[in-house]
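Progress report, Aim 2. The chain analyzed during this reporting quarter is listed below.
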Amino acid sequence: MGGVTSSMAAKFAFFPPNPPSYKLITDEATGLLLLDPFPHRENVEILKLPTRRGTEIVAVYVRYPMATSTLLYSHGNAADIGQMYELFIELSIHLRVNLMGYDYSGYGQSSGKPSEHNTYADIEAAYKCLEENYGAKQEEIILYGQSVGSGPTLDLAAHLPRLRAVVLHSPILSGLRVMYPVKRTYWFDIYKNIDKIPLVKCPVLVIHGTSDEVVDCSHGKQLWELCQEKYEPLWLKGGNHCDLELYPEYIRHLKKFVSTVEKPPSQRHSSRRSIDRPEHSRRSTDCFEAPRKSTDRREKPRRSTDKSEKLKNYEYKFNNDDKLAKLRISIDQMERSRRSVEYQEKSRRSIDQQFEKARKSVDWLDRIRAV
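Predicted structure tokens for the chain:
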């Protein structure tokens, strides 16, 4: 039963266009690979990339002058890069990004057969090409996964902690969950995005149509809920599985997302908080920290006030000391006056005693004469 279910999921997941929408030719004059029937463009390169599983995939690279981001696009299950070519050009122009799209093994003119693990090797080969051939850094790359393309996109994103961002366009929770409303993950399921999305550390944008008849909108909503770093999602009212690019909101929201993730992290977080009004209100309240600190800077005036207080205390002490000094002087004067009075009293007593002695001596003389 498990093998049958796995086979059913695999058949649902992979529907390469048959025949492919393009042919791969080599220009005799330049030796460049071209996509027939599309005319050659100076800013577009067609490549063949080997994968670690022994297949060779076809990729298209669109260069945008002075771009600071590179979009790595993993398309849906019933398309190839011939059908996506014009969209790739338009996205590069409107988003001002370099863009690489590729065909999975067994899609378009890529060799091999489509399988879950082949798609993982396919996106790894495309990513490696961006790093080695075009000098793109992990921090500059945005992974874009549409429908089944969300599988290889999230598998790679879970292993790249410094990615700039991820876009999930009509994503799936898992292959089995598209067909059955299962509540748990089974070993035979494919593209277990529900288990991988919590491991993605960069900002994630989810875009999904509310009238999607292939992958219900609940898949996108549940994946968004499980994101570590959520970005404002885009739920396109009435949008189906393959027509979201026709909505004006699609390109507008995507441009806003790219411009946001291209900002430094500090500015990016403030922009994100501005979307979240309660958070913004709390942060604006926190901004009152600055005036509080400026009040703290008034320490110097307060200290000058403290100085005047000290001066007052000093003056008070000085005045008191002066008063005490004056009081001491007056006490000393009183003491000296008292001593002077006592001295005069002693002098007076001494004179009186002398007069008394003299009177007694006179009386003694009178008594002698009388004898």
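Residues 118 and 344 are 131 Å apart (CA to CA). The first helix runs from residue 2 to 13. These observations will guide the mutagenesis work planned for the next reporting period.
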